[in-house]
Amino acid sequence: MSTITLILIILLGLALGSFSNVCIYRIPQRRSILIPSSFCPKCGAKIRPYDNIPLLSYIILKGRCRNCKAKISVQYPLVEFITSALLTLAYLRFGLTWDFAAGGILIILMILTFFIDLKHRIIPDVLTFPGIVLGFLLSFVVKSPSVLNSILGILVGGGMFYLAAILGELLFKKESMGGGDIKLAMMLGAFLGWQKILLVLLLSALLGSLIGGTTLFFSKDVKETRTIPFGPFLALGAIIAMFAGDALISAYLKTFF
Ligand SMILES: [Zn+2]
Questions:
Q1: Which tens digit of pLDDT belongs to each residue from 124-167?
Q2: pLDDT tens for each residue of 219-250
């Protein structure tokens, strides 16, 4: 693990974070993520390459468009920072291996899911369908999960969420969990295996009731809190399971069995 590789990974993370920002903005609008190049959403001015440097440009421009001085959302540098930080953590954890590649892809997919579902209440099929296939294919080369475990992960993830969706409809007489969540769970199962998808379910339910409950407590608008999307919690749970899943599962088994 050399310093140069580490620096390259940090920079790669920033570049991927910048690309993630484009995806978060354009995928819900069903627009191409490759063309045209970035422009200011307010005035439409093309963003020059020297104004498009991750983190730095935001600081130099003091968070405003060079042309019209409109405020640039803090989400942009935030996504760049989180992507780079998580990718670096994955490198430190897995080294330059296939598990790092798979982890890196899962990190990007989770960041996209988190922000797109939070803002638009959708989990796009263009993320989950290729994600399921990719997670499965990567199981042939990674140390964990095995190919069989990846298949089981898809089935268990999809099955659990399908059941939860049916149960939710019976109990609340309305759709409580979207099809997007089911496909997301299948994708996470493909990447993490059946044990960790169960952990993700547990973690996201915990996080969801904790954060959802707090929001409910402080919010006057009950209607708004009823529609808190579940995808962001699944994304958080998946990141935790990816880094700490083995430790958490063995601690759980030691405590209860
Ligand atoms: Zn502008």
A1: 999 999 999 999 999 999 999 999 999 999 999 999 988 888 88
A2: 665 555 456 788 999 999 999 999 999 999 99
Burial of 168 (0-12, 13-18, 19+ CB in 10 A): middle
DSSP state of 177: S
Q: How far is CA 81 from CA 58, 110, 242, in A?
A: 12, 14, 19
Residue 97 carries which DSSP code?
A: S
CA 16 to centroid of ligand 1, rounded, Å: 23
Strands (E), the chain: none
Which residue has tokens 């409809």? 169
Distance between start and end Cα atoms, the chain: 38
Distance, in Å, from the CA atom of 89 to the CA atom of 73, rounded to the nearest integer, reads 25
Angle between helices 98-120 and 179-192 (to 10 degrees): 170
User: How large is the average pLDDT for residues 191-215?
Assistant: 90
φ/ψ (deg, to 5) at 160: -60, -45
User: Could you tell me the pTM of the whole model?
Assistant: 0.91
Instruction: Output the CA 14–ligand 1 centroid distance in Å.
Output: 22
- H/E segment holding residue 55: none
102 CB-side CA count, 13 A: 30
* CA–CA gap between residue 113 and residue 121 (Å, rounded): 10
Question: What's the CA-to-centroid distance between 44 and ligand 1, angstroms?
Answer: 6
Helices (runs of H) and strands (runs of E) counted in the chain: 10, 0
What is the 117 CA–ligand 1 centroid distance (Å)? 26
Calculate mean pLDDT across residues 62-66.
Answer: 94
